[in-house]
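Lab notebook page, bench 4
Experiment: in silico fold of construct C2
Operator: M.H.
Input chain length: 370 residues
Purpose: comparison with the prior construct
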Amino acid sequence: MRPHKLATPALAALLTLATAGVGVDLLAQEAGEGQEDAGTREPPKLRIEPIGLVRAGLRVEPEDSPRNTGFDLFDARLGVRGGFGSILEYIVHAGLEPRAIDKELEFLDVALAVTFMPELHFDVGLYKAPFSLEELIWRPDIKFESRAQAVTAIAPGRQVGAGLSGTFLEERLEYGVGLFNGNGKSLENDNNSFLYSGRLQFNNVGPVQLLNEFVIQVGGNAAFSRDSAADLSRMGGSPAAVEELSAFRGDRFLWGFDLSSSYRGFFVDAEFLRAELDPLQVGDAEKLVAQGGYVQGGYRFLSGFLEGLVRYDTLDPIEGEDRDYLLIGANLYYLYHFRFEMQYAIGLHDSPPTPDLSDGQFIFFVQLRL
């Protein structure tokens, strides 16, 4: 089987499901209130919450960029999430691929989670493998328009599989491990080998963070897979490498570490990722390496409504030139639902354009989230 695709009418179906979910939840509440009045125990409630994201705006590109200047739809996503009681949680999430010619919707997350205790959750379905700090951040919450180059190129991203996760030490210590097909969103496991992925992180204060607290978090992750036709083309830095890596056959070992801290409006995040590929072919084959990361920092003004930030983003791809960029940005938040962002990219050391960045690129977009 191939990755699931949704035709355009699926958007209406998801909207119908989200609307119906609100009605189901209200009926469940009314039924619960009636039973409570009757002196019976209230049954678990079915929770259905619509989720969505739209990002649209202006992209101004230099002459040597592979993209065109104009208005763009960066993201369009819709889905539902919720649970049944305190044991079962779920998410069904689809999105538009803006760079695709046919503009089709495709499933992003289709997953279930069963909570046995805070220290032990069982996850199954299509969801993100536990790897990389920025990759695991919900897209509306990433600081810039796109994720860092190394994160996009190296992190496994969404996979079909199952895993365990949980927290310890009053939610300060968090872990996640998983076993996945290793072929992205495909249900196929073409060579009877799996992608093994795991992540561990520690936060000194836990999930509730106050503005005047000093918060520091450290994390690390690793993954291994024996691939027969994996698309790792984003790690390539030359046309030949991109073509060779589009159907990679061999061993893939990924690892990385990260640090995040904040205090009184100031914040600093840093992450490093490395991919070591060992091709399986006749004769001796040289190990292929891609690595990179980012360092970003900024300050939140006006109780967090305005945010200024800067990022150094680097990727050393397999073959080709290094790609070093400096990004300068500003975010304006209005309540929970709206965000306005401007960002400007500066290529360092004559870095070539990338799939997402180019020297002199300017982006302005408006974000609406549910």
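Observations: The first strand starts at residue 5 and ends at 6. The chain has a mean pLDDT of 86.
Next step: discuss at group meeting.
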